[in-house]
Amino acid sequence: MLRNGEPVKMSKRSGDFVTLREVVDEVGQDAVRFMMLYRKNDAVLDFDLAKVMEQSRDNPVFYVQYGHARGHSIFRNARAEVFPELPEDAGERIAWLAESAVERLSDAVELDLLKRLAIFPRMLEAAAAAHEPHRIAFYLYDLASEFHALWTKGRDLPYLRFIINNDAELTKARLAMVQGVVSVLASGLAILGVHAPNEMR
Predict the structure, then answer these.
(1) In this structure, which of 79, 96, 111, 175 has its CB flanked by the most CB atoms within 10 Å?
(2) What is the pLDDT along the chain (201 residues), one digit of tens a residue?
(3) Taking a C-beta distance cutoff of 8 angstroms, is the pair 105, 160 a contact?
(4) pTM (two decimals)
């Protein structure tokens, strides 16, 4: 148990120790569960209380949950800017996006993200067969990282933005890709027993 990289002093003799309940109360159930599953079962778990409260890439649970929330933020922006008819209900939205011209997704970073999405079922099977849930947590972190990287590139390179106001067809194709990311992040987090928020402040 660490706090800011320094060991938290504990002693059984003096009764000075931190219980799991105290850790959950301090950082939340999602952070504890994800961080425990983010390590191989034969690896030592260094649990840094300060790190799991950061809102940064260094906090895996935040980074993955933020990826899910960012996807929903993109949907809200698309609804406001291009597609007011974009359904809020996930099932209806998936059906609406099924008619997207996904062949328009041709940039290397988009294709890499699509490839990452495509390996999700095989990764799940392998994780289950090997009894290694950390594979799911690693995969979700990698997926969120690629998604955040694409979003960041779009800030610098307008042609990579998810929402292109004068190209509804490309925007719809990119929204279908975002839906894939959101669906996989939500499914993976649910398997780990971690919430997938639609909004984070």
Answers:
(1) 175
(2) 455 566 655 445 555 556 666 766 766 677 777 777 877 777 666 666 667 667 778 788 899 999 999 999 999 999 999 999 999 999 999 999 999 999 999 999 999 999 999 999 999 999 999 999 999 999 999 999 999 999 999 999 999 999 999 999 999 999 999 999 999 999 999 999 999 999 987
(3) no
(4) 0.85
Q: Residue 48 belongs to what domain range?
A: 2-52
Query: Who contacts 193 (Cβ-Cβ below 8 Å, separation ≥6)?
Result: 33
Residue 201: inside a domain, yes or no?
no
**Statement to judge: residues 115 and 42 lie in one domain:** no
Q: Are 51 and 182 in contact (CB under 8 A)?
A: no
* Pair of tokens at residue 4: 């800011």
